[in-house]
Specification:
435 residues; alpha/beta; seven-stranded mixed sheet; 14 helices; 44% helix; binds pyridoxal-5'-phosphate
Length: 435
């Protein structure tokens, strides 16, 4: 015999029920709620809206490579994925042969000897590696010197680890050095960590090896940890070579360096990065990582080995492609009255907003107008912090024809005013001729 179902009387005034009916509010942690709004979201939204309406937006907003990786690397990935033994968890910090290949590339490219067992680990892209490194190194009250304008992950990696950022202008590297020295001399204890990022995102500032000699001397004198983000090591132009901090003698006592296969190897979606250098810092990162992730899919690691071993010529070809795009873009902009600094490396042109626009609008307004009226998406400088205001960043991820088209579209909308501003500048006897 089944029990009869007894209906429960519903009383609107029942306190328990009132509690149940109150909408549940999700309370996120302070570390999330204190994050500022993502400034690039507005541009992305507007771009998507325009595309849905049928506009052909030329997208130079994100540094997301649009060219494919080498065919042999894709083939290797497919082959390794078909091997059913490759589908379990892989060693979280990278399979031995991958770490060996990274060490061997460091030796060939920078003359740096690394022990693949203790001085190299793989990360899920360098962004993940950097974020987790901050968790491993930085705690409440710890301070870190961060380049400004800033790649957002540098600032928020430190902030999410409850650290405090000290933002110093990085566009003049010798001033960056003297700011670090001054801060360390004035404040005890010295900041715990200094981040250097050359070639720099977003400004494309580069340094020679003398910069690293000096910064390692400072690390030695003032006892701070040094983190070098060398994400654009493979995208260099006109014979410029991006040095590694690890080639300075003794650097491994203080420094680690992040490299990535996202940029030069066109493998951004694969999430393959590396952290190399100080065994103690590498170990600390490895400890944190083993609590958060299981590492990279083994077939990706196997294909990455193939790319590192046989892909150097393709990396050089890709750098040439960026160099040609740079020439097309910079020459085109100069021709229409918007002269910009010509980068020696990276995927970016960091362009000062020209007059008369600079005096009447913010970088967000200027980027919005470019998108709304010229169908060209760029990143507003303010997205890289206060120091980026007055600039926009153009990522050279569209092909040469599209870049030429972008210049024509910018000229159509802004050309008359740019021209006027150039003409009035040339009345000034101190002005520079624009070539
Ligand atoms: C300076 C810098 N560091 C790190 C990264 C992240 O690269 P990855 O794809 O290796 O995470 C980027 C990506 O744009 C970058 O610009």
């Amino acid at each position: 015999m089944t029990n009869p179902v007894i209906p429960v009387p519903i009383d609107d005034h029942d306190e328990d029920l009132a509690v149940i009916q109150k909408p549940f509010k999700i309370q996120v942690a302070d570390r999330i709620s204190h994050l500022p709004p993502y400034l690039f979201a507005r541009i992305n939204q507007l771009r998507d809206q325009k595309r849905r309406a049928g506009a052909d937006v030329i997208d130079m907003a994100m540094g997301n490579p649009s060219d494919p990786p080498s065919e042999m690397v894709i083939e290797k990935l497919c082959e390794a994925a078909r091997d059913l033994r490759n589908h379990g968890y892989a060693p979280a910090l990278g399979i031995k042969n991958l770490r060996r290949e990274v060490a061997s590339r460091y030796l060939k490219k920078w003359g740096v000897r690394l022990d693949p067992e203790s001085e190299v680990i793989s990360t899920l892209g360098s962004k993940e590696g950097f974020g987790h490194l901050c968790l491993a190194i930085i705690g409440p009250g710890d301070r870190a010197i961060v380049p400004a304008p800033s790649y957002p992950a540098h600032v928020y990696g430190v902030a999410l680890a409850s650290g405090t950022t000290m933002l110093f202008d990085t566009t003049d590297p010798s001033r960056y050095l003297s700011d670090i020295a001054r801060t360390c001399e004035a404040a005890a204890p010295c900041p715990k960590m200094v981040i250097v990022n050359f070639p720099h995102n977003p400004t494309a500032t580069v340094v020679g090896s003398d910069f690293y000699e000096e910064v390692v001397k400072l690390a030695k004198r003032h006892s701070f940890m040094l983190v070098s983000d060398l994400a654009y090591a493979d995208v260099t132009f006109d014979g410029y070579f991006a040095p590694s901090v690890l080639s300075v003698e003794g650097a491994k006592n203080y420094a680690v360096e992040f490299t990535t296969m996202s940029k030069g190897f066109n493998m951004a979606g694969w999430r393959v990065g590396f952290c190399a250098g100080s065994p103690e810092i590498v170990r600390a990162l490895g400890t944190i990582k083993t609590y958060y992730d299981y590492g990279m899919f083994r077939p990706i690691q196997i294909a990455a080995i193939m790319a590192l071993r046989h892909g150097e010529a393709d990396v050089e070809v890709q750098a040439k492609i960026y160099q040609q795009r740079r020439d097309v873009l910079c020459e085109g902009l100069a021709r229409i009255g918007w002269p910009v600094d010509v980068p020696k490396a990276s995927m970016f042109v960091w362009a000062k907003i020209p007059e008369p626009f600079a005096s009447r609008m913010t970088s967000m307004d200027f980027a919005t107008q470019l998108l709304e009226q010229a169908d060209v998406a760029v990143s507003p400088g303010a997205g890289f912090g206060v120091a980026g205001e007055g600039y926009v960043r153009l990522a050279m991820v569209e092909n040469e024809n599209r870049l030429k088209q972008a210049v024509r579209q910018i000229q159509r909308v802004f050309g008359p005013e740019l021209k006027l501003s150039v003409d009035s500048d040339s009345d000034d006897s101190h002005s520079q001729e624009i070539v």
